[in-house]
Amino acid sequence: ASALLALVWVGAALLLIDGALGLWALTFGGAKTGNFWFDVVRNVLAIITGFLILISPILGALVTVWFFVYLVAFQAISTDLYLPALPAIGADLSAGVEEVQLTLSLFLVGFGTAQLLWGPVSDRIGRRPPLLLGTALYVLASLACMAAPTIEALIGGRLAQAVAACSGVVLGRAVVRDLYPPAEAARILAYLGTAMALAPILGPVLGGWLTLAFGWRSTFAALALFGALAFAGVLLAVPETNRAKDPEAVRPAVLVRNYAGLLADRLYLTRVAVAALGYAGIFSFISGTPHVLI
What we know:
Blueprint: H1 2-28, H2 36-55, H3 65-72, H4 74-80, H5 86-92, H6 97-125, H7 128-146, H8 151-179, H9 182-214, H10 217-237, H11 252-263, H12 266-293
């Protein structure tokens, strides 16, 4: 058994190295061929597969605060990583500034709407199945964005990506509340704010480097990798934490009653308004800045 395990690890290491060398050759080895993006995806998948096999023995230890930070970072990294590529997207897909900005604004629409879906569904069937579905969908949507031939296809891919990204943000917090008592959960949820602070710093830097080195489509390849690692972490390391599933959670009457209660709470509405206005200013700035500064 030990010899077989060693052979598996050696094979995984060789697969990872082969993918890395293939990606390096595609980047610096000369002119692009007609199969360029197919080869990029193949090598990225080889790297992901080899990496996941190599780290599989320690994935069980990843159910920590930092993995929850990783899940909560889905929204921030999905918006910030590709921002430096906006002008390149417009040039490559022959799209105007307003059309390119729709890839961000409709992402926010999809993300906000999906919060109404993931929470009740996870209360009904548990946290783990929606997390697996959401992270898998995120990978597929990111690959669709990477391969988008038109701006319309990219906008559609971004909308699907937003719905998927919302699962990590909503359910990551829900898992924390399931696992920890209120006082401890509040402390850990405060840590999760680091994801929102780090992503706007690191995302544009990494996205700018990727865009310069590989083109705008590479930013979505990186997001696909981000999603694949999240899927593997959930699959191998996150147990089901919802021990009190609610069979009534997705009933329309129950949903309407719950949302009506929130809308009647003035304190809740005040806090939502403050957050909404703040985010409106932030996203107005970041959606227009790349077209001015880059």
